[in-house]
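Here comes a specimen:
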Amino acid sequence: MKQERWTPRVTVAAVVEHEGRFLLVEEHTSEGLRINQPAGHLESGETLTDAVVRETLEETALVFVPQALVGVYMTHIDRPDGTGATYLRFTFCGRHTASAEPRALDAGIVRALWLTPEELHASRARHRTPLVMRSVEDYLAGRRFPLDFVHTHSVGPPNGK
C-alpha cells in the first residue's frame, strides 16, 4: 500500500502596527470566536506576498503593503476528533491603506479590531493559535528579513513559449 505524502499547509499572516496598536480579526472557528492576524492559505499561482495582500484585503478591507518578513513558523494543530494539520506560516509586517472601495469581509470574519500588545496578551485564551502572540513578540523584538529573502521561482510556459 502506497503511503500518502505528508504535506504541510502553507499560510500567510500580516502584522500591522499603527499608533501602538495591532490589526487583528475576530473570526468564527470550530473552537468558537477567536482572534488572529489577517491570515489565510496560499493559493495556487500566488506568491507569498500576493497571498498576504489578498488575505488582508479580504479579512479587513484594508490594503496591506508588505515591508519585511517577520518569520517563518511551523506548528501542528490537533483537533478534538483526532485529526490535525501542520501549518507552515510566513508572517509579514508592513503598513496599511484604506481600500479604494467598500467591501464585505470574508465569511466567518466578524470584524477587524486594533489591540495594544497588552490587550493582545490579556486575550491569549482567545487566540486562534500561539503564533498570534509569537508573531507580535518577534515583530516588537525587531525581527525583520528583507522581502527578497523569500524568492519565488517563476515557471514559464512549456518549452519556453
